[in-house]
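Changelog entry: the Sec-independent protein translocase protein TatB record was regenerated in this release. Current contents:
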Amino acid sequence: MIDLGLSKLAIIGVVALVVIGPEKLPKVARMAGSLYGRAQRYLNEVKSEVSREIEMEELKNLQKEVQQAAQNVKQDVEKAVSDNLGEIQGDLQGAWDGTPLPVTERLISATPDDLSRKAREFRRKKLVRNSAIPGWYKQRHGGKMHVTSGAARVARFRPRGNSSSSFY
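Regenerated structure tokens:
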């Protein structure tokens, strides 16, 4: 940009005052300001339009790359399916007829007893993890501790003095 300091602006103002005259100077200054504002707005619009065009070009390139990758994956899948089509049809026909799959390909399923055991272990571990026992207490006393109620803690730490005393 043009380097205009205060002294240069003062000289331009004095020359404009002498050349234009004091009557027309405010009108000329307003017109110059409005022209300067229009020029700035036009430049900003051009810059934003150029950046939008660049972004659109990048998005088009990205779209082409994604479409190419999708086409490659589709071709790979079609090739794999066509290569194994006879085997897949034989397995489907065998499943339809009720013949079991070979032992090596059979899926191993969990029994209800295994599932219930895993659920119990999960609940127990979650209770130990999320229990209200502070971390320092767990560290001092060996980590996994059972949850103790407030009344049990009071009874445990109550002084062993006179047991016949009462609140009344």
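The mean pLDDT is 80.
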